[in-house]
Write a structure and sequence with these properties.
Length: 604
Amino acid sequence: MPVHWSKLCASSSRATTDTTVRALDAVFERYPMTARRMTPIAIVSWLLAACVGSIQATPQERGVEDSGAPWDPDSGEPPIVTDGSVQQPVIVIPPTTRFPRLTHTQWETTVRDLLALTETPGSSSMFSPDALTGTFGNNGTTLRVGQQLWTDYQSAAEALATRVVRDAAALARIMPPSAPADPRMRARAFIEHFGRRAYRRPLTTQEVDQHLTMLYDRGAMILGGDAFLSGIELVVRAMLQSPNFLYRVERSTAAQGGRIPLDDFEIATRLSYALWNTMPDDELFAAAGRGELVRPDALVAQARRLLEHPRAKTAVLAFHGQLYEWDHFADVRRDGMRFAQWSPTLPASMLREAQMFVDDVVFARRAGLTQLFNATYTFANNDVARVYGLSGAFDNTFRRVELDPMQRRGMLTQVGFLASRAYAVDPDPIHRGVAVNLKVLCAALPNPPPNVPALPMVPPNSTNRQTVNAHTGPGTCGSGCHSTLINPIGFAFEHYDSVGAYRAMDRGQTVDATGEYSLDGRPSTFTNAVQLIGFVAESRQAHECYARYWLEFLAGRGPETEDRSLIQWVGALSRTDRPILDLVESILSSPTFTARSTTVEAMR
């Protein structure tokens, strides 16, 4: 049974030591097995935690109603667009957790940067895995600390503290500059400096005193050896197990204008984890310390600085890779006797093509979403060039190439998207159609019914489309979603075979890629994928869907009904061909990102 560590916190204000001890006793009574596994150091780290409410409380524990169904792309009126300008709406902030837990990846990168390591320690590979939900792996609202993960955190904290503190050079890298020579004063300076970075905010005088007396002063007694080193090691062990480290705690409670503005350090933390997936760097900490980040211009300046860093490229590629499921590329296997374009290195090459294309559109060209859909170029090496039927000399090196605009447009006709959604012999219009509906248009597809049989092999005298339509089209049990949503889009890609190569014929018959699909509530009739993509690139639905996923990725949570106005606004900006990086900045500088709902304060 997972442990709700919220029971360690007695109220929504900072808990005193006495009330925290009573809460801790309650945990021990309710979860005796967990209590017995907690070391004294772990207990102290939780006693010192600045509890500000129920960590990871459910809506019922918060005493509030769930926010309801997620955002619906077809509801609400879009923002007004006049002469390229977009009227900014009133932003409504949904209730969200004040305590998103670090993902395992975030734990790794944060430990690396906090301890000034040259690379991530890799300890999380042994952690109890998270049951992640949603499109992205950073949904902090779903992450809990169960008994096994708690033990994993303890073991990793102890090993890392010993490794760093017992290495003179490593310890010197995390000591504050110009620390006093007196051991206890030096320890106090360390607690202030290291604690500010570990908890991602300044420690109060009371917290510094408590860490000094409850941890540092007891180091030699508990660990033995040199009093200074043992005391510092105990402090590091405790801080790495503290809720203030493991959770991105948001302590602000003062309401203003119907919302709770975040303080500078909370904004810095949100910003850094959104774009770099790790703790703030020194410059961001300094800006927070000067009180600059509550100013929109300063926040945007810092966001742009972070976006210019190579770490932001990693985040942008992670966003597109998870959204469009690039990890599936590695699963592609084909018979080289049937498909001459196939090679064992093609999966790696199609991934590199997708990465270089997105990087070029977003960073080199500073272009918008429309370019991701409509670009008539890509990056190809010999593997990719064979699929596209390009002439000329190619080797393992990727270079920019122009494609036939009548056959290829943007990411939806690239090799990876097509081959990863195909069977061993034939294209897979169902999964191609589902991917565009869900990942590009945010259409509300219901879950498939259970025990759906596999499609039969395509008969010799039938086309792939005819076979799929016979089993899922009009008059069949799958006619509802398939006839109007899935199949029309999937059939638009019938010109691309199982490896993504263009074809005009299928088993001796001319490929039929025609169809009709309702975009923005209006029917759009098309003759092939290129024409469909053109309609998609112009649609409000696609731009709002892209905005919705960026919000989900940057905020580390799923979209809620209250997010509709922000999503529609950013979608409208996107339709004016704003650069993708501008869309990211618009979300990061919005009230949704810099404030919290007052509703979340209703905790028990």
